[in-house]
Amino acid sequence: MASEHKFDPTNPTLKWVEDRLPLMGLIYNAIGAGFSAPRNLNYWWNFGVLAGFMLVVQIVTGIVLVMHYVPDVNLAFDSVQHIRRDVNYGWLMQAIHANGASMFFIVVYIHILRGFYFGSYKSPREVLWFLGIIIYLLMMATGFMGYVLPWGQMSFWGATVITNFFSAFDFIPFIGDGLVEWLWGGFAVDQPTLNRFFSLHYLLPFVLVGVVILHIWALHIPGSTNPLGIDANGPYDKVPFHPYYTAKDAFGLGVFVIFFAAFVFYIPDFLGHPDNYIKADRLKTPAHIVPEWYYLPFYAILRAIPDKLLGIVAMFASILIMFAMPWLDGSRIRSMRFRPLSKIFFWIFVINGLFLGYLGSISPDEILWFGFEAIVYAQISTLYYFAYFCVIMPVVSRMETTLPVPTSIAASVLEANRKG
Amino acid sequence: MMKNIKIKGLLAAAVAFTAITNGSFAATEEGLKTPERNEYTSTGIFGKFDHASIQRGLQVYVEVCSACHSLNLVAFRTLEDVGYSEDEVKAIALEYEYPELDEDGEETFRTGIPADYFPAPFANDNQAKASNNGALPPDFSTIVKAREHLSFLPWHSVYGEDYIVALMTGYEDEVPADAPEGFVLAQGTYYNHYFSGNAIAMAAPLSDDMVEYADGTPATVHQMAYDVANFLAWASDPTMQERKELGLRVMLFMIVFVILLYFTNKRVWAKVKKGEDIDPSKL
Predict the structure, then answer these.
(1) With an 8 Å Cβ cutoff, are B16 and A358 in contact?
(2) Which end of chain B has fewer CB atoms at under 10 Å, N or C?
């Protein structure tokens, strides 16, 4: 964590402590004046901080909820209702935690796509990018297990459907046959499943904290990227994190909290599913089993492929392929601001992802435009999803004519000022 | 350039918006009607519980619905939140009996106290089914939330209260002309415009003047349905009013705070934004 300023307290007590445990210096160099960031970061760079904020919110509210929640198949549903009805401000904690999961995913999706657009995965930030993907995978697992805990109809059936994915691996010798039973801890989703999901749902967020620390550590080696995508090496290219980005992030965080609070206080159930207000019933399958909204694009990819095993492989591959992005993208320029063709394909990719999400929310045999079933559209969308990584990105990044890139961040600031 | 990104981002969001809103509930069943929107005092950001209606709804629940439907998660003590005094709550609880063991370990009964919950009409699900032609009357504790389908577009949303009013008033004595083609009503079911599949195992539970309201409100089927919907909405989400009241305070605080943060940020960045700190000769 290189920095221009060293933390040097004048207070003798603080100095005494700092000489023995340089914790204040660590913080100073991580998010204080000792760490400097490019001066031209825009609000898309706010979302990493927002994601960190959401992780803390989820852990704090989660710990309070656990004080009242009972992981028992007969009591879990009622205990969540008890939290909402009887616990002081339990309704608030529960609403923050349930909506917080969605908020966490919203900010992380924007954070990831920011990385796509501005080439944050490119050298020298590959490991930073890998850690980000690991964080995302851990979030998916944590979110899924958390959704099972209230033990409503969608919790139970969602858990049944998603754990059943692993039955596709039954061809693996010795372990394949028993894989799903091993996950369940029995022959169906039941008490052992709920207990282990509860345990892991409590554990994984702390694993997340660990990986997030590594993620921030890896970020501090090269420093943040910036909208121009050029290295910030010049004397005037950077500003101290504090007060510049603490002030900017505080404003962004305030706006985000208003957005978050609108859900919590006025539409707390908007992002949930009404069936989760019905206690889990193993004899009654809901008409449509859908996962939480943040898994829908991947659910659509899974269902687009008629073969079960290939569908599962495609679903996992759709995320794991991001590990290859630093090499799939061969452009020497990071930011898509100077890569006009890549930019177009990127926005198509975003819209395609939203469309996949929509397809994941409806039945695959529903008839859509021009009389084709939803699955046909899902197959086309899935094709584009993978083509974006496997064909478009490698080819376009190496062939397109790029626009002239400014010589330095400071120069571009002066240039912009001259233009007014 | 920034503008360009923003416009495209908004466009992408708009596309997703329309896609999702059109899709979520596009799969309407043939013969199934969408419940009409009624007016409630509980809607909107200033929503308040309609105590008079909820109290009438409680009367309908106790005198009619509770014969088959449980309300397992609602305690008598919580009725104080909808305008009953402590003594009135005690009196309501006294109407019920609960099993208890006496000093000799023999089973006996005691009268209810405010801390008790509404007793279930049947001992278990099997007994409930046996008494209802094989159909299980659902518990009412969270029924309004469990029947609420919210959409991005408010006019596409189906609210739980509206569904209950529609269901109570949506019965037909005979299979109507607008039923799905070839519809045959199964033995022991009744035609309803709003129930999925149009055949419901519950006979029309309400008829005019079935209850006599203490406040003199005429007990039409629609009025009783509306009142019981209000009561059940409260039962499903008893902290709604507290939630919206706190929300308003949080929002007002946050808006003022964010305005301050905006100007703080602007002030902090003023010089750097313009590049006044940059010495062009050193670039």
Answers:
(1) yes
(2) N
